[in-house]
Amino acid sequence: MKGNSYFSRKLHSLLGIIPLGMFIVVHGLTNYQAFERGPEGFGKGVTFINSMPVLPLLEIFGIYLPLLFHGIYGLYVAYQSNSNTGRFKYGRNWAFTAQRVTGVITFVFVFWHVYQTRIQVYLGKVTHEELGSLMHDIATNPVMFVLYTIGVLAAVFHFSNGIWAFLISWGITIGPKAQRISSYICMGIFVVVSALFILSLVAFTGDEFKEAASAALAFTNIG
Amino acid sequence: MAEATVATKTVKFIITRQDTPESQPYNEEFEIPYRANMNVISALMEIQRNPKKSDGASTAPVCWESNCLEEVCGACSMVINGKPRQACSALIDKLEQPVKLEPMRTFPVVRDLVINRERMFGALKRVKAWIPIDGTYDLGPGPRMAETKRQWAYELSKCMTCGVCLEACPNVNDRNSFIGPAAISQVRLFNAHPTGEMNKEERLDALMTDGGIEGCGNSQNCVRSCPKGIPLTTSIAAINKDTTKHLFKKWLGV
User: Fold this and answer.
1) For a pLDDT cut of 90, what percent of chain B falls above it?
2) Residues of A in contact with B221 (CB under 8 A)
3) Band of the pLDDT at A4, cuts 50, 70, 90?
4) What percent of chain B has pLDDT over 70?
5) Which positions 160-199 of A are in contact with B (Cβ < 8 Å)?
6) Which chain A residues have a beta carbon less than 8 Å from that of B240?
7) Domain termination residue (choose one: B69, B92, B115)
8) Does B105 touch chain A if contact means CB atoms closer than 8 Å?
9) Residue B180 near chain A (CB below 8 Å)
């Protein structure tokens, strides 16, 4: 069974939900603290994540490796597909093409985003406490704001539509009615999770993140 | 008087031609006299009788395949005004003109509108889309099928291997080994049969190898295109469920 495309595709489908889908929701909720509770709330979220046990293992096996497999195998899946939305202008066919396009956008965006944030922390150029101000710098740059909005919407669409496809690929939603209802639920998920990210991105543009960051910086300098 | 009116009305066609399997395709335009209740096949027959292009120049008659002329054999599949369908049930009165005829390029083109659908029959062999009953002695009558089940299974049995679902599928192409929706639905049909069910694992195993059911990307064009209205996406999802269960059973050794 192992080594054939049935197994790879099933693993690709599973990893998209567990852990990657779960991760995107947690990420959205953590960011949303910036909107709901400001710099302190966001700071607490970051601290909470950093206080998790065996964090490096969680990051490697829970995020990096699944992300690499899902991303690279996903590029291959996209390469294997044609787009025939010109001939078949059905909503689901548009979603099929959009799933592949947003997957590629998300792939590029996630690499860039991880480089801009997590890698900078690894390199010692930014501390976890300064992530708020780093996001403030990114969000106040109009080009970056637009690119982040596109990246976030692409990632969330890919996630939401991916749930719909996951439910079919594992044989959970079988009939047309079940698939229609799940598509409504997935649309709802798209709206809610997108809102979490967009609102937090807007919150990061606030001046309080600049100040909070310098305060945190001052604190670390004293410490 | 009536005849004169009929004679002036014509039907325009743009047909994609191809002389050999390897040669480049090209378009030719035709204009033929209109007759009441024409379909694409009768129009092609008219071109065959008088193979002249709309500019009056002679050309080789257009080649196509057709058989039953009542949308049950699947032979006359072609792309008509951009959509794959059966030429016999494509009525000229209901088509926009000029009518564009192209071969279904998902399959190897033999000549003009004639394609080779061999991969579909190969797919049926691969998934063992039959019920083995041969033996060395009389096994007696098989188990009965519930009437409620027979009714939906009958819908699946309408598949005529016409290839329209493969032409509509964005995942059936040169870069992808996906078996296509038709064979998956046939697995559901034969696995639903009380005697066929006895070999269901063999058919599921066939779909759990390279180019099997995992090739479906859920664009759902197949179910929108099927001329027989077969619930192909329901079949795919149902077989997704069966293959998933089979996968875990194999792992757990049940």
Assistant:
1) 93
2) 84, 88, 90, 92-93
3) confident
4) 97
5) 164-165, 168-176, 179
6) 168-171
7) B115
8) no
9) no
């269901």: which residue's tokens?
B200
Give tens-digit pLDDT for B172-207.
999 999 999 999 999 999 999 999 999 999 999 999
Give B177 to chain A, closest Cα distance, Å: 9
Chain B CB within 8 Å of residue A84 CB: yes
- The position carrying tokens 């296509």 is B180
Burial of B63 (0-12, 13-18, 19+ CB in 10 A): middle
Whether the CB of B248 is below 8 Å from some CB of chain A: the reply is no
The count of other CB atoms within 10 Å of the CB of residue A80 is 19
Q: B208 contacts in A (CB within 8 Å)?
A: 1, 4, 6
A179/B237 Cβ within 8 A: yes
B216 with A1: Cβ contact below 8 A: no
Residues B33-61: tens digit of each pLDDT: 999 999 999 999 999 999 999 999 999 99
Domain shared by B139 and B54, yes or no: no
Task: Say which amino acid occupies B84.
Answer: P
Contact B217 A96 (CB under 8 A): yes
What range defines the domain where residue B243 resides?
118-252
Residue-wise pLDDT for A11-53, tens only, equals: 999 999 999 999 999 999 999 999 999 999 999 999 999 999 9
Distance from CA of A152 to the nearest CA of B (A): 23
pLDDT confidence of residue B200: 97
User: Which letter, b or e, does each residue of A43-70 get, where b requires 16 or more Cβ atoms within 10 Å of its Cβ?
Assistant: bebbeeeeeeeeeeeeeeebbeebbeeb
Domain carrying residue A165: 5-222
ipTM: 0.91
Q: Where among B115, B136, B152 does a domain terminate? A: B115
